[in-house]
Amino acid sequence: MEEVKLIVNPVAGGGTVGKHWPRIRRILEAEGLEFEASLSEGKGHAAELARQALNGGYKTVVALGGDGTVNEVINGLMAEGDNEVTLGIIPGEKGNDLARTLGIPFDYAAACRKLLAGKAVPLDLGRITYHGGKGRHYFINAAGLGFDAEVVRRVTPRLRALSNPTVRYLSGLFLTLASYKNREARIAIEGEVLRERVFSIVVCNGRYFGGGMEIAPQAEPDDGLFDVVVIGDFARWEILANLSRVYRGTHLSHPKVKLFRAKEVKVEAQEPMLLQADGELVGATPATFELIPRAIKVLV
Fold it and tell me: Which residues contact 183 (CB under 8 A, 6 or more apart)?
């Protein structure tokens, strides 16, 4: 493998990545990987580093961090349009949902070996257009409207400092649940239009989100289709009663949950619904989700 660009987010995993970065560097050097590493310094910096790597001629860019770090790197790479860069991933914490779907180990040494032995596989991407076409953002794992985006908004810097991703997400969930109100939405999915009151809408390319919730058990990131999970008009007590089912991936049988498979989804709402992509807050409705087949190569 020729020299790669490694983009490191030292604050990922509540600072876990920064703590273990010297060890990870030694592992990669011992494995014989030639690389140049850059540490991101704040929100949006990983995307800028990815753009610089692309312009610098790197053919492989590796993201070391959480799902948000991977998302930033992808958006940096896609800012220049189609390219031949391959993405590598070293999970920064056990809450990395994309790594869980792709079978990338959470142990650092195992993840480094997997990276070096990995095969470049083309995966689908999602592209979101929002705010009346003024905003555009890419995602590789899952994007959501409604409750899960509100949870992302509620995860304060203090909560982000928690190293346990499940505790971090559930803390935001309980804080949000106390005041959240379901929304009236118009959802257009491959020509079918739903008008109903919803708790959340999750557009999935991968199987997991929220630090281990198996939100879309049948999703495959290379099949050319989104798995769209529409969570209907749940009361607060119903959410709490069914929370464990989402972790087990058995919630799809609930009568208030609907699953669709589609290449395009459009959502409008009477009261704006916040939008998150791969765990990062990016905008609000109206929003259109388009699947771009085989848009990026990932080492798996």
Answer: 146, 197, 198, 269, 270, 271, 273
Which are the contacts of 91, defined by CB distance < 8 A and separation ≥ 6?
A: 66, 99, 104, 105, 106, 111
pTM for the model: 0.93
Report the CATH number of the 4-118 domain.
Answer: 3.40.50.10330
Domain with CATH 3.40.50.10330 in the chain: 4-118
Q: How many CA atoms lie within 13 A of 295 on its CB side?
A: 23
Please state which CATH class domain 126-293 belongs to: mainly beta
Joined tokens for residue 18: 């920064």
pLDDT tens digits for range 56-109: 999 999 999 999 999 999 999 998 776 789 999 999 887 789 999 999 999 999
Q: Which residues contact 172 (CB under 8 A, 6 or more apart)?
A: 151, 152, 154, 155, 159
What is the largest distance, in Å, between two alpha-carbon atoms of the chain? Answer: 57
pLDDT value, residue 161: 56
pLDDT tens-place string over residues 176-230: 888 999 999 999 998 899 999 999 999 999 999 988 899 999 999 999 999 999 9
Is 152 strand, coil or helix?
helix
Exposed e or buried b for every residue in 263-292, given b needs 16+ CB within 10 A? ebbbbbbeeebbbbbbbbebbbbbbbbebe
- CATH 2.60.200.40 in the chain is located at 126-293
Do 265 and 189 touch, CB atoms closer than 8 A? yes
